[in-house]
Amino acid sequence: MGFHKAYLQSFIVALALAGATLNTGTAMANTEEPEFTLVLKEEAFELRDYAPMIAAEVSVDGDRDSAVSAGFRILAGYIFGGNAGSAKIDMTAPVTQSKGETIAMTAPVTQTGAAGVWAIRFMMPKAYTIASLPKPNDARIRFVEIPGRRVAVLRFSGLWSDSNLMSHREELAALLKAKKLKPQGEPSFAFYDPPWQPFFWRRNEIMWEVSRH
Question: Fewer Cβ neighbours under 10 Å: the N or C end of the chain?
Answer without folding.
Answer: C
